[in-house]
Amino acid sequence: MRSETMSRPAKQIHLAAHFPGVNNTTVWSDPEAGSHIDFSSFVHFARTAERARFDFLFLAEGLRLREQNGQIYDLDVVGRPDTFTVLAAIAAVTERLGLAGTINSTFNEPYEVARQFASLDHLSAGRAGWNVVTSWDAFTGENFRRGGFLPQERRYERARNFLRTTWKLFDSWHGDEIVADKETGVFLRDARPGAFRHADPDFDIVGQFNVPRSPQGRPIILQAGDSDEGREFAASSADAIFSRYDTLAAGQAFYSDVKGRLARYGRTPEQLVILPASTFVLADTDTEAQELAHEVRLRQVSGETAIRFLEQLWNRDLSGHDPDGPLPEIDPDPGENTVSRGRASVRMYRDPIATAREWRERAEAKKLSIRELIIEVTGRQTFVGAPETVAHGINDLVQADVSDGFILVPHLTPGGLDGFADRVVPLLQEWGVFRTDYQGETLRDHLGIGVDR
After folding, report:
1. Gene3D superfamilies given for it (predicted)?
2. Mean per-residue pLDDT for 258-273?
3. Strand, coil or helix: what is 23?
């Protein structure tokens, strides 16, 4: 299928760029791999995304370095700076690029987060985006005074309450419109911009919000959950949702399901943008790109890394196994995670035993070693080929309602986005499916959502 032959008007593609930092995506052995903490790396990456007219730059964040078998391991980056600090600094060296970051709703407080995002939205002239995430492990909680963790069913409840509370703070600068609290009915005789009162099972606060209404009203809300609770949370509250589905059938099913939930909240399909995270490998020809992609995967998944990935499913110490040998004969331990800390690990797989069975069947059918299997099942090189091949691949999936665009994750930073900006974006622009210039000032404008007031 080639999208230019389709009868309906072409959808406009949304593109964002992820500066990686909490996984093994980056090929550190490449001479072009740069620092993940020097500000010059962030500047280069952001300016490339902006000259390519991307919607936004995205920063993930981990609140504690992960451990496996009691040691910090090589699937993490050590030394990632604070998200708000980096985004505020990038705001000073860019003009239109959206600035989105992950901020946790489990181990933060609404007043502080609302104040930080309202400030960032002012400093950037309306380009702030918030990826709302939750945490569930006590290991991460040990870094915080409250400590502990939330069970699965409570994580999204707190996140919803957290978001409602921050919205009340963002909206508190409507001035004279605030005459009574909608939940308590308490009349605020001294109603003035910034006055707020909010009470729910998680938060009970009252006071004065000290940051005026920002250019977007509220920051763009992003969400990444794939569970039923996560999809419902996105349908009710998010402006964009990350997706892990980038194949035709799975992507269309996810797209249809999430978009179909919006009506019950009085929303239209255009009010939620679906963006899978995807990697890419470019070369002059498709054959060269395939060869390069294979080399990249070998560098991303060493023998040791393959064993560590396998341990996350098996929930067992597998350090004695040969990464070039077969899968373990023993089944995964489906109980509480004891091998990986600070990561979803076994919880990433709803049925570890069934997943292990699928992996064994695949390995036997293709005669794959542990490392070869892990390279295959963890691969995210969605787009591999010459520039035109990659451009068609992206456009075809968007036009087929697999997604509304993609968040691109290069395997090199800070220069890994350069080739895409120089060789793929011009083709999408030529076909009329991607902007040649920004049409608005704010991130809401870029996403086509409009100002939230």
Report:
1. Luciferase-like domain
2. 95
3. coil
Q: What's the order of all strands across the beta sheet hosting 67-68?
A: 71-72, 67-68, 340-341
- Lookup: tokens for 274: 């679906």
Please say which residue of 329, 360, 377 terminates a domain. Answer: 377
Phi-psi category of 315—alpha, beta or left, where left has phi over 0 and alpha has psi -120 to 50?
left
Q: What is the pLDDT of residue 189?
A: 43
**Encoded tokens for 426:** 């011009």
Here the tokens at position 441 are 């000032």
- Residue 75: alpha-carbon gap to chain centroid: 17
Token reading at 223? 């969400």
In terms of Cβ atoms closer than 10 Å to its own Cβ (0-12, 13-18, 19+), residue 12 is middle
pTM of the model as a whole: 0.90
Asked if residue 403 and residue 360 are part of one domain, the reply reads no
Torsion angles phi and psi, residue 284, rounded to 5 = -70, -30
Tell me: the pLDDT tens digits for 38-92?
A: 999 999 999 999 999 999 999 988 787 778 888 877 666 555 789 999 999 999 9
Q: Tell me the C-alpha distance between 209 and 206, whole Å.
A: 9
Q: Give the model's pLDDT for residue 98.
A: 98
Candidates 134, 97, 122; CA nearest to 17 is 97
Take residue 344 and report the two structure tokens written for it: 């979803």
Cis peptide before 323 (omega within 30 of 0): no
- CB environment 282-321: b (16+ within 10 A), e (fewer): bbeeeeebeebbeebbebbbeeebbbbbbbbbbbbebeeb
Instruction: Please count the residues of the chain.
Output: 453
CATH code of the domain containing 416? 3.20.20.30
- Domain range for residue 334? 302-377
Q: Measure the CA–CA gap between 111 and 128, rounded to whole angstroms.
A: 17
The one-letter code for the residue type at 118 is A
Contacts of 410 (CB under 8 A, 6+ apart): 17, 20, 279, 280, 416, 417, 420
pLDDT digit string, tens, across residues 147-193: 666 776 788 888 899 999 999 999 998 754 444 455 555 444 445 78
Give a yes or no: residue 87 inside a domain. Answer: yes
Q: Residue 344 pLDDT > 50, yes or no?
A: no
pLDDT band for position 210 (cuts 50, 70, 90): very high
pLDDT of residue 340: 74
**Does one domain contain both 268 and 326?**
no
Q: Single out the residue of 404, 328, 319 nearest to residue 359, CA to CA.
A: 328
Same domain, 215 and 350: no
Is 22 among the domain residues? yes
If asked whether residues 9 and 41 sit together in one domain, one would say yes
